Amino acid sequence: MAESSSTPHAAASAALQPGGRGFVADWSADQRSFKTASWHKAMMWIFLLSDTFIFSCFLIAYMTVRMSTVEPWPNTSEVFALTIAGESIPLILIAIMTFVLISSSGTMALAVNYGYRKNRRATLILLLVTAGLGATFVGMQAFEWTKLIHEGVRPWGNPWGAPQFGSIFFMVTGFHGTHVTIGVIFLLIVARKVWRGEYDEEKKGFFTSRKGNYESVEVMGLYWHFVDLVWVFIFAFFYLW
Amino acid sequence: MTQAAHSSPGTANQAAPDHGQHHPLKVYFVVWGWLFVLSALSYMVDYFQFEGYLRWTLILIFMMLKAGLIVAVFMHMVWERLALIYAILVPPLAVLVFVGIMAIESEHTLFTRHLFFGAGG
Predict the structure, then answer these.
(1) Is residue B8 less than 8 Å (CB to CB) from chain A?
(2) How many domains does chain A have?
(3) Which residues of chain A from 201 to 240 reach within 8 Å of chain B, CB to CB?
(4) Partner A contacted by B30 (CB < 8 A)
(5) Are A48 and A221 in contact (CB under 8 A)?
(6) Is the dihedral of CA A8, A14, A15, A21 positive or negative?
(7) What is the pLDDT of residue A5?
(8) Where would you find this protein in the cell (chain A) (predicted)?
(9) What is the complex's ipTM, to 2 decimals?
């Protein structure tokens, strides 16, 4: 770049056009289409787009087997009910899991915000709370799996109806749970970097050797919110439908 | 859309060196609250055992509202430029075509199962 300053896009972004014209100008521009998003962020978005297709395929597979089976589909409202204080409450475990995950999304959003304010302490605490809520979610999912396996649910059959129920359940929730688990691990890695102040002193990452900054917290947040987003669809289509 | 929602002074894409997303905390708390309310409402759909089209409609409305809030505010999509918004949000529309194709396919499978295995399988 001709400009020697540390903000190569600063001059360019002042001249950026808004709206549809800006969209055409950005996409027909030299060098890069994403004028204000860093590659770090753009690539995370593109990864999430590919992940969207993966989860879409799972949910479409679910739709296909559910629409084409001649046997009755198990009633999820009863399958996922829990007996609390002698009373059977439908779907209660899934409702609690949903609230846990939404809470973690909230704390993540706050962590990103405090990161940009360079408030290390608040960012660290909020990241750890997010990781804790994520781990709680995975724990509850493990409980749910254990309960269903004890009740006889297998990938090839279950006591209540269409055998496809088990395979779809284990695949979809298992893949989502894997995403949450990976998210918790990376939350802890990012939290450690915040704790050590590596984003304040722009220490280079061990893997990419790019200079660290608090945008990493936002990109981590994109992944985490995506995990919550996927759950919104699983909750609607698999548990409520 | 993007300009109005932006809260910090200056234009939507200020020339800040880090292009960071600086927004007041209140936005996040409001969205957080709405996500709780919408989740509670979608749980209520099951709890009160609404059936048929009413159930589907409510589930889909609450689902899309929640997804929209998460993507728009928590993932900062409303504050990004259209180049990124379209690049990410348009391709998933192809999924709807796939849904349509597979719906036709499963109707056909169900039909042949009824035809050859008899009703009730």
Answers:
(1) no
(2) 1
(3) 213-215, 218, 221-222, 225-226, 228-229, 232-233, 235-236, 239-240
(4) no
(5) no
(6) positive
(7) 42
(8) Cell membrane
(9) 0.88
Give φ, ψ of A157 to 5 degrees. Answer: 175, 165
Taking the CB of residue A178, how many other CB atoms lie within 10 A of it?
11
pLDDT digits (tens, 9 = 90+) for B28-61: 999 999 999 999 999 999 888 888 899 999 999 9
**Residue A222 located in a structural domain:** yes
State which H helix or E strand residue B85 sits in: helix B82-89
Phi and psi at B57, nearest 5°, equal -60, -50
DSSP structural state of residue A235: I
Nearest to A23 among B17, B82, B99 (CB): B82
Per the structure, the complete domain to which residue A85 belongs is given by: 27-240
Q: Is the pLDDT of residue B5 over 50?
A: no
Q: How is residue A200 annotated by DSSP?
A: T
Calpha distance A54→A117 (Å, rounded): 35
B-chain residues within 8 Å CB-CB of A14? 15
Residue A96 domain-assigned? yes
Q: How far is CA B6 from the centre of its chain?
A: 21
